[in-house]
Amino acid sequence: MMNRRQRRHLEERFFKGVMRLSLFLALGVLGLIIVTVTQKGIGSLSWSMLTKSSEGGFYLGKEGGILNAIVGSLYLAAGATALALVLGLPVVFYLHAYIGKSSLANAVRLAFDVLWGIPSIVYGAFGFILMLMIGMRASLLGGIITLALVELPILVRTMDEVMRMIPHELTESTYALGTTRLELAGILLRQTLPGLVTAVLLAFGRGIGDAAAVLFTAGYTDNMPDSLMRPVASLPLAIFFQLSTPFPEVQARAYASALVLTILILVISLLARLSLRALGRHVIR
Amino acid sequence: MTIRTATHLSIRNLDVWYGGQHALKDINADIPRHQITTIVGPSGCGKTTLLKSLNRLSELNTQVNVSGQVLLDGIDIYDPAVDVTEVRTRIGLLAQKPCPLPMSIYDNIAYGPRIHGQKNGKMDDVVRTHLQDVELWDEVKHRLKAPATGLSVGQQQRLCLARALAVRPEVLLCDESTSALDPISARAVERLLDRLKENYTVVMVTHDLAQARRLADYVLFIWLGEVVEQGPARHVFNQPREPRTRAYLAGEIG
Ligand SMILES: Nc1ncnc2c1ncn2[C@@H]1O[C@H](COP(=O)(O)OP(=O)(O)OP(=O)(O)O)[C@@H](O)[C@H]1O
Ligand SMILES: [Mg+2]
After folding, report:
1. pTM, whole model, 2 decimals?
2. Which of the ends of chain A has fewer CB neighbours closer than 10 A, N or C?
3. pLDDT tens, A114-125?
4. Where are the domains of chain A?
């Protein structure tokens, strides 16, 4: 018969095992994705692929590259994140400065949670219908607006949570020094900056990886992006189109493109981590 | 025009509500200039509420309603014409739980003087003097640029005291400011408060009756949101008039 102490010990070990297993599975899947993409794509990854645009026939196996999709994706995601910030920051400030913990604020939060859960193809269709109505064609601008709508709930809800984590004591002891509201905002910005940067990165990551939202709204082109009103290529769609061809060498290029996208996101995350370490040095916990 | 009298802060018919809850009822008291006034009373009687009403920090909570007057040298701090940042500059607060600003040790002290217009030239001196005053200088002089969060709770509390003093307030409100400290840091803060009263008016909340007896010149005893008894410390502690004060001092309530 086990005594109580042994039983609790065993429980502890069991649950620790379960947690380790989950962690291992999650990391394993991630590792497998990276290994597969690298294995299948590294062979086709060439310098010209990164430095040339598609120039017609690339998807049939001819010469060229995906520079147009890389640059297009960066434009789309950066534009969308900037637009989402412009739309989202006032919402976040309004939530905190004026309606705080009221039921209206909670209704707003619920609404954004629902928006977060809507699949991006729905945003894509919505954006497309809207563009048809105003007579706009698939373009960089259309893609940016639609992607901004996809990113907005992520940005608003993540920033909202970051702001909610501000200790009440910090506000109080800052005001106790005779600060104005603006000076307080400066202090709170120092406190929340790492979290806000993380929110922006999450939104950016979602935006750069999304295919469905830009399918109809940004279109696709073999050329480099040159105007807000013209179609633009993007990495997720480049991967999608290359994968759907019947040619094995083009499919291999899809994996190479996926590798590029993965490395792009990895580099951005790493840079952010590094900057966060500097930014977060003084944050109160 | 300000009139310098023996009374520095005068509380007149002060009522405070949290929503429907009447937390402070018709408080009247005269806080003497350049003395230590201690507020004592059982937990939940309204001590923190009173303290935060004295520099308008209570209005950060939108549920709070305040009526009555708090006169700082004869001028009502609740007068709409009065600038709230000036009120809080002249009446500083040291909270119960230390909360450094998200910046370095040095900047924590320098922040207040900077926003109030002190030039950076003499800042090193300002920072050093205030850290020396709270007996923290020797512990931190080699890591002034390090994050303030790296300090122990006791060190953080002394840092927050130095930060409050660097703003050069006239009145310093302290909410159980030594309760998070080890006995040695607590005594350091007590010594400092005792020294400070030459130039500052101190109002402190404490649960530590021994500490109140050591430091207090004037005492307010609060019970369920009302001032039950107030007066010079030796009267209240040695010959309390009210039975409830006697019971509290004997440790029977609270
Ligand atoms: N933010 C708040 N919202 C609602 N009620 C509050 C709030 N803060 C305090 N109260 C209530 O007001 C009364 C006085 O609280 P206060 O914090 O001033 O007491 P206190 O004397 O400082 O107690 P303690 O010695 O435990 O710190 C209590 O009944 C408390 O429940
Ligand atoms: Mg209290």
Report:
1. 0.84
2. N
3. 999 999 999 999
4. 67-278
